[in-house]
Amino acid sequence: MTFHLPRCLEGPDADQALGYLTRYYGRPYTGAHFDSWAPRQNDPNAFTAEDLLAVSFLSVVVPPLAARELLDTRAAEFGALLRELGPDRDLVAQAEPVTEEQPASRLYRAVRRLPGVGRTIGTKLLARKRPRLVPIYDSVVARVSGIGDHHWEPLRQALQTDDLHKHLLDLRDRAGLGPHVSALRVLDVVTWMEGKAAGVRPTDPDELLGESLTEPEGD
Q1: How far apart, in whole angstroms, are the C-alpha atoms of residue 62 and residue 202?
Q2: What average pLDDT does the structure give for the chain?
Q3: Can you tell me the distance from the alpha carbon of 17 to that of 124, in angstroms, rounded to the nearest whole number?
Q4: pLDDT (tens digit per residue) in 74-93
Q5: Left, alpha or beta for 104 (phi > 0: left; psi -120 to 50: alpha)?
Q6: What φ, ψ does residue 218 adopt, rounded to 5°?
Q7: Phi, psi at residue 39, to the nearest 5°?
Q8: pTM, entire model
Q9: Percent above pLDDT 90 for the chain
Q10: Which residue of 33, 63, 140, 154 could cross-link 116, Cys pair, CB 3.0 to 4.6 Å?
Q11: Please, are residues 48 and 202 in contact by the beta-carbon 8 Å criterion?
Q12: How far apart are CA 58 and CA 207, in angstroms?
């Protein structure tokens, strides 16, 4: 699988990508609050109610039975998986290929087995916990990037090519965003915005409920 960059990142002119970022965070779209929501309640080794609220800004809702398992009946199990995953770090710096046996993959599979949790909700939950390491999946980004469910490894390789990671951080700085916005999130936002501008609509059931509630008034 090859990770295809959005057109706004393919050439040397970054004005379009910068415009997408400043519009997304400046108007703002509700997803802009995901990156900075309740940082003091973002325990790196436990899922909390604030995490469920944070992902709702990205137009998804964690189903009640899944929320109960994350926060209560299986909280210790998920806490152990998060501790095994280790602290947040940049995906680009991971020397080894992403495999099914790595801690991030095991955590992702455990989250995906929760009642009603699909690809979109699962990756957004993990991105709340490890925003520099875990890329978000949604059906709009998937259409633009040509990715499937297992896109972490193709993305890791892409980030290591042609200083893409550095370019994304430069865009973040030019847009006046803080370090709480990761390079992965910059890529996610500009890809999603390009897809929306081209008329790509979400198709994943996880995303359909909140689609009309997460864009700025008037959009």
Answers
A1: 17
A2: 92
A3: 22
A4: 999 999 999 999 999 999 99
A5: alpha
A6: 100, -10
A7: -60, -30
A8: 0.93
A9: 83
A10: 63
A11: no
A12: 9
